[in-house]
Design goal:
Layout: H1 2-18, H2 22-48, E1 56-61, E2 66-70, E3 82-84, H3 89-102, H4 140-145, H5 171-176, H6 188-197, H7 214-228, H8 232-241, E4 250-251, E5 268-271, E6 274-277, E7 292-295, H9 296-307, H10 315-321, E8 337-339, E9 343-350, E10 353-360, E11 365-371, E12 373-375, H11 379-398
Helix pairs in contact: 2-11, 3-7, 6-7
Length: 401
């Protein structure tokens, strides 16, 4: 009788031990479905368009789980692989400005020629480099919103009508193309100085128009440095990277800082029937608007903390950042845009990384979708496809089964 009871118990234990954990099983099923999303899009480029390297990666933070999948067939990436986050950097710059605003060290409604609160110093230097058109009308808020009309030295070619050796050229390309000048270190003063010395502007800041301007964010970077007394990179480290434990987020600023740490995601540009690596680049011309290197884990963590009031900026100021205005594309606020179905966040594009990241307060889900190539000139189609798989991924996560 005792032997029979023991046998029954052993059989019962064996049956229980063989049963699959339903929670884990559900997580695995969802991960597999997410993986099929990125694989499908990757295969479209690899097979249909003959793009040998076409990797996509997808990351989510939900209330109870964290998901990360990638399409790379030879070596699966993880959420801790480094890549250039490009204009997602602007969320850090905007957060820096809002932190200083919260501390009473600046007022976002001030014009940039006003005195820094409690001092006799102006927000911008009183020299020819910062004699930008309409400077007495440009507010800090307008710079954050891309509504100041500041000419964008990074993305706009210098007008052919100016009397300069770089007329009709992209200024950064011109400078780094000079003999032995590939690793030239650009500065805020130099970049803004190109605007000032050539009297370049897109429109008066009082016109109510919108035009994306990286150089406008260079001015914000200079303001952050003048108020804090430390470099832009140091400010981010002291106020965000270290206290929030964003241990794999790096602010590169020297012209020689062309590398990305290991393990990294390499990038590739497809153009005119060929492709080449674009992983290494001089990012000094993008400080404060697109220079950061990070990981999927850090970026999703950052956006969730920022937009839930856990990054040092209180919710009243976060709500100010989220006051987006329609502009013909993604409505834009203070360093934050809104993407229907995904939430508030930012996009990033720098040779040849594409990234979309957002936090949705309606469901508490944070998402990042990225890829490591540009299929030039169809980059906007790529981004549309990435947004679609990010939305489909959220549908998978909502599925109880």
């Amino acid at each position: 009788m005792i032997i029979r009871i023991i046998s029954v118990l052993l059989i019962s234990i064996t049956i229980i031990s063989c049963q699959t954990n339903p929670v884990q099983n559900n997580f695995d099923r969802k991960s597999e479905r997410l993986h099929s999303l990125v694989d499908s899009l990757s295969n479209y480029y690899r097979v249909n368009l003959n793009r040998p390297v076409a990797d996509f990666y997808l990351s989510y933070i939900t209330a109870g789980d964290t998901f990360y999948v990638s399409s790379e067939p030879q070596q699966l990436y993880t959420a801790d692989y480094f890549f250039r986050i490009a204009s997602i950097t602007k969320t850090f710059t905007a957060a820096s400005v809002m932190l200083l605003h919260q501390q009473g060290k600046l007022n976002i409604n001030d014009v940039i020629t006003s005195n820094i609160p409690g001092t006799s110093n102006k927000y911008i230097p009183e020299n020819e480099d910062y004699n930008v058109p309409f400077k007495d009308e440009i507010t800090i808020k307008a710079l954050l919103e891309h509504r100041a009309g500041v000419f964008d030295v990074t993305n706009q070619d210098i007008p052919a009508t100016v009397i300069q050796p770089y007329a009709g050229r992209n200024y950064l390309d011109y400078v780094t193309g000079l003999p032995d000048n590939r690793y030239h270190t650009f500065t805020f003063d130099e970049l803004v100085g190109v605007v000032s010395k050539n009297n370049l502007s897109n429109f008066p800041p009082t016109s109510g128009q919108y035009k994306y301007s990286n150089t406008g964010y260079n001015i914000l970077g200079k303001i952050i440095e003048r108020i804090s007394g430390v470099s832009y990179s140091q400010f981010l480290r002291q106020n965000f990277f270290i206290p929030l434990e964003l241990n794999r987020t790096i602010s590169v600023w020297q012209g020689t800082d062309i590398q990305i740490p290991e393990p990294k995601i390499n990038s590739y540009l497809y153009e005119n029937g060929t492709y080449f690596s674009t992983t290494f680049d001089n990012m000094s011309g993008n400080v404060s608007e697109g220079n950061l290197i990070s990981t999927s884990r850090d970026v999703t963590k950052w956006l969730k903390m920022l937009l839930t009031g856990q990054a040092g900026i209180n919710m009243s100021n976060v709500d100010l950042m989220k006051q987006v205005i329609p502009n013909g594309g993604f409505p834009y606020g203070l360093g934050i845009n809104f993407m229907e179905g995904l939430g508030y966040g930012h996009t990033g594009a720098h040779q040849s990384y594409l990234t979309i990241a957002a936090y949705d307060p309606s469901d508490g889900v944070t998402v990042l979708v990225g890829c490591n190539f540009w299929n030039y000139p169809d980059i906007f189609l790529q981004m549309e496809q990435m947004i679609n798989i990010a939305k489909k991924g959220k549908e998978i996560l909502r599925d109880p089964y």
